[in-house]
Amino acid sequence: MSYLLLVSLLCRIDKTYIRDNNGSEIELFNLNPIYSVDYHLLELLQRKWNFRYRLLYAEQNWGTCHGNNTWKGSIAYLLNGDADIGICAISRTYLRNNVVDFNQFSMMDGIGFILKYPKKTSKQWLLMKPFSWQIWLMIIASFILVYLFLHYTAHKIGELLTTPIIIRLYAIYLARTMKVHHLEPIWIRITYLSCMLSMIVMTTLYSAQLYSYLQLSNQEKQIDTIDQFIIAIRTNTYSPLFVKNGNLRNMILQLDMKTGPFYWISHYLKRNNAINIGNYMEGIDYIQKNPRYILIGNSRILELLRKSFAQERLLLGSELLGIDILAYAFQKNSPLLKPFSEQIMTIQEMGLINRWLWKVSQAINIANPSAYYESIRTNNRFRTNDEWEMMQLIDFEALFNSWIFFIQFRCQINM
């Protein structure tokens, strides 16, 4: 009699439709095992250790705590005894460490950010840049209104305009150095003098802004370091972008940080509705079209896609926002923890992660989104359809692990 292993995971749901005897359409849900994380590991260990397994769909949630030690997702399945192991490369956090056991880390991933490269600033209309177009419209409108008001007032008092009213009032401002025939009312003088004072203030502000623009380089400011990243997020100059079903966004929201980049990202996410994208490739396309967004994710994936997938020049931050430790989760004191940990440590010592990354980088060499997937499918570097399907996993980190396990147990070391 074999042992039944209950596995909590995140995977793609395939919807199929069938018709019953009455002709009504019935919607069926199927968990696609190809898209589930570490599925090859389960298959291989099943044959090696003679156990059965049943997949439990964790509703695209690795494990979120909602106060009073109430959990959802894979961690909740483990705590309730509904699952024996949680896979999909779960991030180790302080709260999760308190309630479940993790094997020794399977991978340490750098958390990086990427954005569209700063474009060159145009020198055209430089004299107009110190003020926005709304302010320019208000200035023009105010001058027109003041002139019409003074012109109308001069006609109303019955004065023959032998001298333009603006020149006459300017003489008032110059202590009446010009001889005039009539004394203007005091409220006309106040209006004109207020206008003149406003012009003096605006001229000063305009000169200062114009000087600052002249001192700028011919490119927009780069966002390359953590300090620059924090300023961009804190001031809402840029918006963070995450993979929709990725682990990183939930992990950041659970961190109790008081400062640093994760604090400001969490602060932004709590105040704004963040835009989520389906996978990293969609994220690269999005930031190319929307230059005020920053894609946050696995630094190695971002670097790979920057060189092989992006059609425009992208800037990858030189400093990491942090380190993400990915592992498998087990119930407390689980007998499965030790054998799984030993297998993962063996894989790490073999250094097969870098080999797999090299293979992927060789396969992804066409920077054309429309032909991207087809080039991978037909380039003969992926031996089976399963390997092609694995390329579409949303969680690339888990994909690395599942492929490594595939190599380890099948002894396919040569690439």
UniProtKB/TrEMBL annotation:
InterPro entries on file: Glu/Gly-bd (IPR019594), Insect_Ionotropic_Sensory_Rcpt (IPR052192)
Positions of the Ionotropic glutamate receptor L-glutamate and glycine-binding domain: 39-118
GO molecular function terms noted in the UniProt entry: ligand-gated monoatomic ion channel activity
Membrane topology: Multi-pass membrane protein
Classification via Pfam families: Lig_chan-Glu_bd
Gene3D superfamilies hit by this protein: Periplasmic binding protein-like II (3.40.190.10)
Source organism, top-level taxon: Eukaryota
Transmembrane segments: 131-150, 157-174, 186-208
Subcellular location, record wording: Cell membrane
UniProt KW keywords: Cell membrane, Glycoprotein, Ion channel, Ion transport, Ligand-gated ion channel, Membrane, Receptor, Transmembrane, Transmembrane helix, Transport
GO CC aspect terms: plasma membrane
UniProt protein name: Cell cycle checkpoint control protein rad9a-like protein
